[in-house]
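Render this sequence as a predicted structure.
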Amino acid sequence: MTASIEDSAPLRRADDGTESAERVPLTAFRPASTPRGGIVVLHESREFSRALLDFMRALAEDGWLVAAPHLFHRAASDDEVFGDALFEDFDATVTWLTGHGVYADTIGVIGFDDAGTAAALVATDRPVGAAVSVTAPGIVEPLTADARALIDAAPSLQAPWLGLYGQGDERIPAAHVDRLRDAVAEAPVATLVVSYDGLDHRPDEVSPESGTTAGEDAVVDAQRRIFDWFDSHLR
């Protein structure tokens, strides 16, 4: 049986790597057996939704030690978490995972929405084993001054990367996704961009507006691809 964990990990300063007194809170799920690897889950809001917690639990049931840093733990931060803050939180979470018996080369990262963009950027700057981004915006223009446009960052991907999109997403034009597909083809690692027809937004869950049979089928396929991506590349 999987177990949920609330913990924290010390941060290391981006400028010199020394340990800080500040810690990042973590929500984690441990599998019933010895973990076969670890997954860092990035999220785009201050609250952990039931759907996100259920997804993390499902990853743990598949054998992964799953940890999600609370990216908005900094009291003064109401903005998107990119730049040094993102990498500090990510690195602390990786250290927490390795401290719990996970090998560094079997750690992956996944993010949803704006945090999907963060997951892709992490995969350009950190030696993760695999990365997944779900409906990641900021393809042509960077989301913040601390982020890079994905079409600019894509050729620098260091880890196999999977991008999932809904074709009806008004925030992310299909033409931008096509440009991203071309950009990631230049990366020296395996990449795949999948667009789902008939979905307005997140292909990992059915919204009330798109709760059709086609939408449900897309959700099943998207979730299968996420699990298969980690299965294939975190070995």
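Summary. The beta strands are 3-12, 19-30, 37-42, 64-69, 107-112, 130-134, 161-166, 191-196. Residues 206-213 have pLDDT under 50 and may be disordered.
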